[in-house]
Task: structure prediction
Amino acid sequence: MIDPDITRRVEAAVEELMPPHGQNETRSLALVGDRMLRRLPSSLDECSDASAAACVQTAALVGGPEAKRLLARWAPDPRGAVQRALAQVWRYFDPGEYATAVLQDAPLDDGRIRVELVEHVSHLRDLQHLRDATLDLHSSEPVDDLAFLRDAPPLTTGLQVRTGAPVDLTPLVSCPELNFVNVSGDAASAGWAVLPTLVDLSWLRAAAPEGGHDVAFLADCLSLTDVILFGCTDLSDLSALASASHLRDVKLFDATRLRDLRALSGLPDLQSLFVGEAPVTGGLSAVTPVLDRLKELGVLSVPTVTSLDAVAGSSLQEITLAGCPVTDLAPLATLQLTFRTSRVQNRPPPA
Result:
């Protein structure tokens, strides 16, 4: 039997932490169990944003029907911090029951929600105030197909997903308002023709189809400005890519057959260029045709880049170097830039 004095001291310590002030306290408080739910406020009106979000997290970690009823009571709170917290804790409950009991009539984050699990996607259509959904599914298990998108709401604007096998991109047509797509994993086996039908698509990251042998579809993606292609093992001619004259940011990785970058001069708005594993002829001098318009340049594991002389005095603002046999960094002293060694942006900027 626990000493009553110890119980009183624990209760007093818990009382001092109520309501929780931030996320650091939530897991410890949740260990108190169901009794903690009775100590949480029935209304979050008097709580700061951080405290309100911590209350949501604490209740969710306790779990159970009583916790779900408490979360439903808080769901009308319009603050973004509360609504984002309610979306984040969805993972701790049955997907359908939580969508109906808690999120169905919630205002969401000004109508927006970000979901992180595939099993939540089919329930988004039940949310009465939804006007923008982002499917950030990288924390989910890799998927073998994109059929789940057929149940996604048409208001879906972003998709990030890991694949465990080559997938057909055709189900993307169910989300006509997509503006960014990040499909990491094996190259898609089919469905590339659907991308030009996504009229708002501006950001794409994917394995290059057929190793980059044919990327002509990019020219028909009229809103596309940023493209990241990996697995470009058969990409040797950039003329098809250059026909997508609206591109501003181009990143090409695993481009082991790419030797000539001159075709990129056909991209008048190009501002950022990354090439990886490409044995470009002449090293950095290969970027000379587009150097006048570049603000950012990245060369990763490019064996022919032995000197930085070609970029001396240019208007580059940022450069990324990694895995290149360069020993003399003196030319960088002529630039006003941020020098980085390995970091590459893989995801779209936050909305």
